[in-house]
Amino acid sequence: MDQLLINPDYPHILSTLIFLPLAGAILLLFVRNEYFARYWALGITTLTAILSIPLIKAFDPSTSSFQFVEQVDWIQSLNIQYVIGIDGISILLVMLTTLIMPLCVLASWSYIKTRVQAFMVCLLIMECAMLGVFMALDFVLFYILWEAMLIPMYMLIAIWGGPRKIYASIKFFLYTLAGSVMLLVAIIWLYIHNGYSFFIPDMMWQNYSSTAQIFLFLAFFLAFAIKVPMFPFHTWLPAAHVEAPTAGSVILASVLLKMGTYGFLRFAIPITPEATMTLAPAILWLSIAGIIYGGFTALAQSDMKKLIAYSSVGHMGFVTLGIFVLNTAGVEGAILQMINHGITTGALFLCIGMIYERTHSRELRDATGVGKHMPIYVTFLTFFSLSSFGFPATNSFVGEFLILAGTFKHNIWLALAAIPGAVLAAAYMLRMLQKIIWGGTDNPDQSWIKDLNLREIVTLAPFLFFVFWIGLGAEPFINIIHVSVENLLNNYHGFHSQVAAVTELIIQ
Amino acid sequence: MEIQTVSSVKLLIALLVPLFGTLGVLFVGKNENIREGVSSAASVILLMIVASMIPAVLHGKILVYHLFTVLPGITVTLRADGMSMIFALVASSLWTIAVYYSLGYMRAHQEHAQTRFNACFALAIFGAIGVAFSDNLFTMYLFYEVVSVCTYPLVAHAQDKDGYAGAQKYIVYLTTTAKLFLLPALILIYVLTGTLDFPHNISEGLFTGDTQSWIVIMLYIFCLFGFAKNGVMPFHHWLPGAMVAPTPVSALLHAVAVVKVGVFCTTRTMLYVFGVDTMHALNLGIPTAYFVGFTVLAASILALSKNNLKERLAYSTISQLSYIILGVALLTPSGIDGGLIHIVNHAFSKITLFFCAGAIMIAHHKKDLSEMGGLGKSMPITFACFFIASLSMIGAPPVAGFVTKWNLLVGSIEANQMGILLILIASTMLNVGYFAPVTYNAFFGKRPEGETYQGIQEAPLSMLIPIVIACTISVLLGIFPNFMMQFVKAVTG
User: Fold this and answer.
1) Which pLDDT does position A315 carry in this prediction?
2) Chain A within 8 Å of B145 (Cβ-Cβ)?
3) Nearest CA among B264, B284, B140 for reference residue B198
4) Residue A8 lies in a domain
5) Within 10 A of A220 (CB to CB), how many other CB atoms are there?
6) Sheet with B61-71, side-by-side order of all strands
7) Does the structure show a pLDDT above 80 at A499?
8) Chain-wide mean pLDDT for chain B?
9) Which label site among A24, A214, B2, B176 has the fewest CB atoms less than 10 Å from its CB?
């Protein structure tokens, strides 16, 4: 069993990160002032981001144990604990969340005009729940936060969304809720079979029966595959993205989708390794289907937000592909690609939001030919689009490279089947880029449109910084996650050789 | 000769000069004289830096400069060796000439968006220099893609229906082939060999004996088609489509920078990723030679049928590019020499031809050959240069192309391939067939009916001087082939 490491220098850093936004949200409830709400939310999220920086400094990349652990009893009668900690798999996701939230506030600065204070409260509660999900080491704590995320997200779409917000928000809510019902059953089963404990690390690498593993895995799969979303469970995503306000789309794409793939890595593989082995081939081909399907569908969209939403289906297909080839390059690439997708797709949603604020339309044809009048904007857009289809020297290239390298090691035909997805990604991104920058010979008159202001540039610049940092020097990022990934895979493969040895013994 | 690697920051400077040139152009865009001054200064500085590396390379040194480590085994690293100097010298020296030519052309034509044009032009050179100085397959792929993206605005420059259609075809062909073939090849080579770094000689390559041969052959085919800028059929269609671009673009990019990026990458991969030994062992050379031999002939035949001068030149380019690959694919010393030296020879001669086509456009506003009968009397210098450059294409002495043809013919005899010899001879005849009538018609042909050519004279001096310089160098390369041959010999040893 992994030991839990408490960092004496930062004894309560994780709790601070979780509860600071929550405290900020509660205080904000009592103030009725739009301007104050904006600055307050920006201040709180920025403070959270700054406080999270010591995490990366003090994180020990040489161990796969959970670090910065905090543990207190919560509900003693049910043996539920408040226990949180992070390892190489979750640290980058935590950092992504804390760093992206101030930018979401900035992106909503003038976009949100009604009920600003309530909007900011929702954002802050979201941040608290998302960080908690990535840190929770108790299954009940995890489940509560997992469900808690739904409510502010639902409100973000239902209150500040577009024309079909009610449809989209209910679809989002029902889909993700349906997925997590079976998760609850699985949690209770695990609770009973683990000496009435919800402590997640204790549930890993146990010899549950094969049938039980299959059922557990399917329960996990339903919950996580909907969240990712994997083809064919993706239909809620375009609807939600299209109707959500910019900040909602960014949070959805950058952080919420990662919960699904994080779930596979944290729960499905360690708790049900045998079922993972049995079902991995099916998931791999499902990932390929998602990559190709997402690509073709994105190519056909005339709505920019839908286009990016379907591109997410394809990109997340790459992530699940990398996870389930179950080798170092694949899993490391998948984790890196989760971060990359958060950066790039988040930035693309911000870019589209900036156009929407000006033209009040998400239609590609209404945005054609703005390049001439918005040179700064299209420069940003170009780099993010290039990153999105894996242009070399950008972040996504490194992620896709590792995932495909892992896939080639696993099965050459599987990897070759994924390649058309990369071609399609280039096709739909360049198509959108061409239309926005150049358009055709019959562009609408765009001469009234204004280029980005300073606030918008400040919002986009950090994304660009990370696009090139990861794209040109991914090694430090890989070093952080490496030991945890190796440990996961060693346990996984070790588990299987152990099982094989036992089977052999019985046969003899 | 002992190979010695030396770290040199000159490589980085050479790469940054066109990049800062781009930024400079964008910054001073409104003042066109200063803007063109920036372009010109950047081109001259670049040429001087590249030239300053000549002595070291000729002394058998390899200059390297490490920039980034993306992942273990995947780095952005620059290198200058014999082969990179061939291309870097061509690209940088022709840029200095093309800057003046395009200044004259764009102003005479009163083209719109000249700042964007100049910026993208410099950015394309940035990509080409990056390709020339790549030390590994990843760096080369990176700059190859940079060139694809940066030249889109140049092809779409006119922003009319034809411009957009041509540019769309351009980007679709180039990115699709790169993603479909190059990306998997790059990753699989990394997975199989654990490295993407080019070795220091052309024989060993990256593959050790234990890789299954069908995979190596598949990767080889992927690389041949993946670098579609090499114009090898069937992925050549983007090049005639790109002729909608302004003529300076066709001249520098679609006769030199872009297409040479394609053949440079192809031959670099053949020699430094697969290596002569592996190519021999798997018998990849001669089939490749015959395969591109088809492109040599088919493109020449298509060129015969084109009445539009730029289109005819485009098909000629497709044909001539395959000479380079054909020569290298013969895998004999003379064959490789002939192939690589043709990167230089074709560049100077073909840019002259395109410059002439642009001069005719400016003076006469006509693109079709049938409208140029008797025009030679009004534009004697232009057509004289056209004639000399077309001799080079044909491979007649004493112009540059002769050196190529001589080496290729010797190479095909060395390789004992009479079929290749026949292809080369047939292609020479075809070259005569589509180039000779142009000049003949200009000097001795009848004027089109109702045409008086009144008031038509040579293009402005800013265009005429570059034409004469490029043409003169074509001749000098034919008379003194040894200067550039030194770099080729540094490759073949």
Assistant:
1) 93
2) yes
3) B140
4) no
5) 25
6) B4-7, B61-71, B74-80
7) no
8) 88
9) B2
Mutate to test the interface with B, among A327, A419, A443 (most CBs of B within 10 A): A419
Instruction: Look at residue A316 and tell me if it is in a domain.
Output: yes
Nearest to A423 among B145, B160, B179 (CB): B179
At A2, is the pLDDT very low, low, confident or very high (cuts 50, 70, 90)?
low
More confident residue, B462 or A305: A305
**Chain B, nearest residue to A412 by Cα:** B188
With pLDDT > 70 as the criterion, what percentage of chain A qualifies? 99
pLDDT above 90 as % of chain B? 35
**pLDDT at B327 (0 to 100):** 92
Token pair recorded at residue A473? 């020097």
What is the extent of the structural domain holding A346?
A: 13-507
Q: Model pTM?
A: 0.92
CA distances from B122 to A394, B16, B67 (A): 21, 11, 21
**Residue A373 contacts B, CB cutoff 8 Å:** no
Decide if A299 touches B, using CB distance below 8 A: no
pLDDT digits (tens, 9 = 90+) for A349-387: 999 999 888 888 888 888 888 888 888 999 999 999 999
Residues 6 or more apart in contact with residue A295 via CB below 8 angstroms: A310, A311, A314, A420, A421, A423, A424, A425, A427, A428
Domain count, chain A: 1
* B73: closest chain A residue by CA: A475
Of the partner residues A405, A419, A438, the one whose CB lies closest to the CB of residue B159 = A438
Chain B residues whose beta carbon lies within 8 Å of the beta carbon of residue A383: none
Pick from B115, B140, B161, B179 the residue to mutate for testing the A interface (most A CBs within 10 Å): B179
With respect to residue A3, please indicate whether it lies within any of the assigned structural domains.
no
Maximum Cα–Cα distance for chain B, whole Å?
A: 72
Interface TM-score (ipTM) > 0.95 = no
Q: Is A412 on the interface with B (CB under 8 A)?
A: yes
A404: closest chain B residue by CA = B187
Average pLDDT for B280-297: 91
More confident site: B26 or A101: A101
Task: Measure A10 CA to nearest chain B CA, in Å.
Answer: 31
Flag if A401 and B175 touch (Cβ within 8 Å): no
Q: Is A6 within a domain?
A: no
Contacts of residue A46, Cβ cutoff 8 Å, sequence gap at least 6:
A102
Instruction: Test B160 with A441 for CB contact under 8 angstroms.
Output: yes
Helix (H, G, I), strand (E, B) or coil at A479: helix
Query: Which residues of B are less than 8 Å from A422 in CB distance?
Result: 179, 183
For residue A1, the model assigns a pLDDT of 43
Q: Is the pLDDT of residue A212 over 70?
A: yes
- The whole-angstrom separation of Cα A151 and Cα B207 is 56
